[in-house]
Amino acid sequence: MQDRLRLVREELLSDDWGVLKKHVFDYRRRDGTWETQSREVYDRGHGAAILPFDPARRTVLLVRQFRFPAWMTGHAEPLLEACAGLLDADDPLTCIRKEAEEELGYRLGDVALAFSPYMSPGSVSERLWCFTAEYSPQDRISAGGGDVDEGEDIEVVELSLDDAFAAIGDGRIIDAKTIMLIQHLVLERAAAREQAPSSTAQPK
Question: Which positions, given as ranges, span the membrane (predicted)?
């Protein structure tokens, strides 16, 4: 892409919690013609999210919290979401372990990366590292709830995996990262069952 893009200028529009800039650039289309385009890009840093799963009880851990942008666009209730946070100066794995302890109140063991998508690449630069992990009730170290000093007021919610999956269809879960992680876990579990040797197989 380097030979198809020429940066012209950038303009700072806002620099508060995140940075909003307007970028003007020349772009060469596939037919070879050049055109000038502009995009507003919001940079709030990258993040990480996690969906812990208890295989013995087939449950997942989520959080419920108020989201002002969702409220102002018509969603009256707090959102059910996967635990998540911004990386700040941490790597994704360190970040999500901290977030799990802070928001969920659980100290997790092995953590597996599921995927790391750009969440809204048309206007937001954030990339989100999404993880899964197994947990049990013995892993709980606190009540969780988030960082009060950062304005967090988080409820820890435990659902069966089946109920969490159903909540996507009935509208109780409308957060994108959470939908992707639940669907990933359901597909992963289904694939594991298919690959498991049948207990009824006859010896040769």
Answer: none
103 annotated ligand binder: yes
**What's residue 203's pLDDT?**
47
Instruction: List Cα–Cα distances, 202 to 45, 58, 161, 192, 198, in angstroms.
Output: 55, 30, 32, 21, 9
Distance CA 116, CA 47 (A): 9
Would the annotation count 84 as a binding residue?
yes
What are the tens digits of pLDDT across the range 45-88?
A: 999 999 999 999 999 999 999 999 999 999 989 999 999 999 99
Domains delineated in the chain: 2-43 (no CATH), 47-193 (3.90.79.10)
Cβ contact 38:22 at 8 Å: yes
Average pLDDT, the chain: 94
